[in-house]
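Hi there, hope your week has been kind to you so far. Please have a think about how the structure follows from the sequence. I've dropped the whole record in just underneath, so have a look:

_____
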Amino acid sequence: MVAKVGVDGCRAGWFYVFQEPSKFTFGVVETLTELVENCPADATLFIDCPIGLRDTCATPRGCDSAARKLLGRPRSSSVFSIPIRAVLQCSDYPSALAQSRQLCGKGISKQAFGIMGKILELDELLADDQLTQSRFREIHPELCFWALAEGRAMTYSKKTEQGFQERLKLLKVHCPQAKRVIDQAMRQYRRAELSRDDVVDALAAFVTAAVPNDELCTAPLYPEHDSRGLAMENVYRQWIR
C-alpha cells in the first residue's frame, strides 16, 4: 500500500506525519529534500503549500478562488493570494512588493511574503522532475476540515481553543490517534520549532491523503496547469451528499 503523508510548514522547516503498520511516524525536517528522504520511497505527500504558480500574471489561481467560494466567510480569508513566481527570489518585503507591482500590477501581502521561502523551496524541488511532481499534491487545511464536516466551514478560528477543539473532534473521527500525535509532537519539539496549529494542519492533510484516490475531489473540478505543467488544485475528501 502506498504511504500517505501529511505535511505542513513550521518554524523549523516542515512537520510531517504518516502511518506505518503498527504506529504513527512524525517529525520535523529542515528541508523538503530531507523530507523526501525520510518518507517511504513510494509515498504521496499532501502538503499545505502552493503548487503551480503564475509566472508574471496577476490572475488569481483558480484553485484559490474555488476554495474561497466553498469556504465562504469568514474562513475564505485564510486562502490568501499567492505571489507570482518572478518575485520568489526577493529577499525583503519592499523589494517583493515593488517587483510584483511592476511585473503584474498587483502587490503581495506580508502574510504571503512570510511563506515565500517555503513556496520557492517547493517550486524548485518540483522543477523539471516529473517523478517528484507526481508525489506531491496541494491541500488547504481549512478546505480539508470543510470537507470532513461535510461541507461546513469551521465556526472558530484555529488560533482559539474553541477552534482547536472543533478541528480535533473532526480529526478523531478519521484518526483516533490524533490527540496522542499532537500531544507527543508538542512534548518532543520546542514552541520555537513547531506550533500546535502546524500539527493539526498536517493531520488534516494526512486524513485527506489516507483515502483512495477515487474518493478525493479537487477545487476546481478541472484544475488548470502552470507553465511548468504543475496542476493548480486544492485536494479534499469527498462525502455522500
